[in-house]
Amino acid sequence: MHNNLSTLLLAVAVTGAIFTGCKSVVDDFGGEGQLRGRLLYADPYAGNGALLPLANRSVKLAASPSDQLNFKYSAQTDKDGYFQFENLPARSYDVFFSDTVEGRPTVATKTGLLPTDQPFILQAAYDSLAQNGLFVTVRDSRGGALGGTRVCVFNNATLARADTCAGSSFQLTTDAVGRAVAYGLPAGKYYLLSKATLGGTRVRAFDSVTVTARGVARRTLSLRSAPSRRNGFELLVLDQRDTPLANSTVCVFNSTVLARADTCAGSIQQLVTNTDGLASAYNITPRRYYFRVRGTFGRLKLRGYDSLDVPAASVPAPLRIRLR
Questions:
Q1: Whose CB among 18, 28, 222, 323 lies 3.0–4.6 Å from 304's, allowing a Cys bridge?
Q2: 232-322 CATH fold
Q3: 28 in helix, strand or coil?
Q4: Per-residue pLDDT tens for 271-289?
Q5: Is the alpha carbon torsion for 162, 163, 167, 170 positive or negative?
Q6: What three-state secondary structure class fits 183?
Q7: How far apart are CA 46 and CA 24, in angstroms?
Q8: pLDDT bucket at 68, cuts 50 / 70 / 90
Q9: Are 58 and 99 spatial neighbours (Cβ–Cβ below 8 Å)?
Q10: What is the residue extent of each domain of the chain?
Q11: Is 95 exposed, middle or buried (0-12, 13-18, 19+ CB in 10 A)?
Q12: Cα–Cα separations (whole angstroms), residue 76 to 3, 32, 56, 84, 149
């Protein structure tokens, strides 16, 4: 008798739990409202920018505000990207989408929606928090797009400055409207070199960009004609750990006596290194030049000295000057 009573009580408890759960669903979807929408997507880095429907994708509904993890209901888009939620009570909802599109994580969110007969657009976009990349646009000097143009990407400034794609980490080619993109790159600093011939004139552009672990870094390269480099010098200023030093002062001398004086007095030219620690001069008198360099690292004041023979018809490999 005792066992029969225990079994009966357990059955009642389980049945009550089941009905309680069902009652929650009825409360959530026992209304008369609806939400109708269309899921669209446009690749921000390729294509013509047209919004295209995403078919056979799961769109989720949650009570607003939501954490997008505990959703109430999901609906499948049709071949034209349309979806619909029905029997909704009059309250605020969030609608969201998260999936891979063309191999890349893509998301869309609409918050604070009230049931209505008016359809809405749920526009999906590249999820910049899920991956990283580099997006490059190449233009001519007037801003026109340059399609089919090669962009050489380096992780070494010295190789990039050599004005050739030899030693590049990888290469990109722009599409018809001058765009090129790469995804899933190691975080770090990259150097971009692009060259072309327009109307018989050689044009080029050089720039650097830092790619972080998440997000897409953007750069626009404007190709312009560069003066011919008959000869010259290029300097790379480094600290003791071979880190490039920006904003270092380079005093250029044609006299070793003046250069040894540890002052810029009597120098024929003064240069400042760029963000990559580089300084240069071209089409100059061939001879030996002496360089007195001053820079800072934190609170430390650093000094360096070196010399270089500049030929009449070439540019030597960059001279590395380490400051101490």
A1: 323
A2: Immunoglobulin-like (2.60.40)
A3: helix
A4: 999 888 999 999 999 999 9
A5: positive
A6: strand
A7: 45
A8: low
A9: yes
A10: 28-126, 132-225, 232-322
A11: buried
A12: 48, 20, 6, 8, 41
Q: Which two tokens stand for residue 216?
A: 């897409």
Here the tokens at position 321 are 């000057």
Tokens of 171: 């290469």
- pLDDT for 162: 75
Give the tens place of pLDDT for each residue, 162-172: 778 988 999 99
Count CA atoms closer than 13 A to 17's CA, side-chain side: 5
Alpha-carbon dihedral 306, 309, 314, 316, rounded to 10 degrees: -30
Residue at token pair 């690292």: 297
Per-residue buried b or exposed e for 70-93, using 16+ beta carbons within 10 Å of the residue's own CB: ebbbebebeeebbbebeebeeeeb
Query: What class is the 132-225 domain?
Result: mainly beta
Q: Residue-wise over 232-260: b if at least 16 C-beta within 10 A, else e? A: bbbbbbbbeeeebbeebbbbbbeeeebbe
Residue 324 has which token pair? 């101490």
Q: Which CATH code is given to the segment(s) 28-126? A: 2.60.40.10
| Cα dihedral 161, 163, 169, 174 in deg (nearest 10) | 120
Query: How far apart (Å, rounded) are the C-alpha atoms in residues 115 and 32?
Result: 9
206 three-state secondary structure = strand
Q: Is beta strand 179-183 parallel, antiparallel or unpaired with respect to 188-198?
A: unpaired
Q: How far apart are CA 173 and CA 257, in angstroms?
A: 51
Same fold for the pair 28-126 and 232-322: yes
Cα(241)–Cα(198) distance, integer angstroms: 42
From the list 70, 58, 40, 38, the residue with the least C-alpha distance to 99 is: 58
